[in-house]
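Subject: sequence -> structure tokens, single chain

Hey, anyone have a minute? Need the predicted structure for the following. Not urgent.
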Amino acid sequence: MKQTKLSAGTWTAVILFGLIGQIAWSIENMEFNLFLFNYIGGTTTDIARMVAWSALVSTLTTLVMGIVTDRLGHRKEFLCYGYVIWGVMTMLFALISRERTASMFPSLTAAQVLARTAFMVILMDCIMSFFGSAANDASFNAWVTESTDETNRASVEGVLNVFPLLSMLIVAGASGIFVERAGWPAFFLLTGGVVSVCGLLGLLFVKEPEHISGERMNFIQSVIYGFRPSVMKENRDFYVTLLALLIFNTAVQIFMPYLLIYLEKTLQFDTMTYSIVMAVVILLASVVSVIIGRITDNIGHEKLARWSVFLFAVGLMLASMVRIPVLFIIAGTIMMSGYVSILVIFTSALRDYTPVEHVGMFQGIRLCAYVLVPMVVGPAIGSFLINHSDAGTYVNGYGETVNLPVPAIFVAAAAVSLFILLPASRLFKAETKEGEE
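Reply:
Had a minute. Here:
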């Protein structure tokens, strides 16, 4: 099929909201972990809890707000104003510290102050995730699906999947240097402000899609609709694709929440070194993402899916073995090239299989498998491996001893990722038969 050309305004919205949204999520997924671990003094168990609770909030929010935006038919307002509030919630993290908690509750012991402050970080993360999911997961993702079609979605996904990498580069690289010089409060004020400004700018050029799905069922029926066996059978390809993404993201979440801590504390890379390592890996993988998007639109998903899985698994195994920056760059590039290829192939397929009459609603179904289960199971596996190893400990800034991330998190992620091949074989085998017919 001839590829449908997207307007300049659509591409501008995809790039601006896609990039800034991913920067905000990278801060939530990575920097909040360092903030809780280093600045507050939490443990990897606290990180696993924070990831799990925020995932639950994000999933429920997307399920409910996706239905709401379907009913009201106003993607633009939820998208733009949601980003504004999302940024404000991020800025409020500048107010959290153990010293402030101690001054607010002078009767608490040092251990109670730590527990209370860690709880405040987790609570604020959940509140921020509510607004972020309403704006990005529910509104932006539905907007992208409705603003594209089967001839250009993989190309758009190729670009969108560059942004998690670029945001990782910006957040993991520049943020480390910025935090060292200006501190965590300034970091949260700056990044939150950028997210809010993005939402305000979007009011000027974001256009409502020509077709927005309108829900006619009552609210409870809409919530349970996507979980009905008959609906799953009717939309088999959507759910099979979702299963593949569930397995993939579970593998990712085994190591990703602990990646920066692993580089900084286990491998003992200084800030400049791990920033350079991340920068090189991410830039190379970003090029791969755009190329894979174009190729997938031209030749389909099936030919690339299996190789992408093997590439990801091999890169993870290599990452578990290397200890010096140059070798980690090589392993990381292989790993992240497989990572972006899997994302482009399966997320574009998921958009193709999303029922056009329930686009917003199915964003919540997507997050159940795309975020909720992986972000509960994955970090728990990672935390278990870390806490049951004898690889060493680290004394944080408060004199507390915590366990270091271990190479086994990459090995476990590689093993889990191979299970992607099971749903992929069924999915793309059917696709190949349809193409032959």
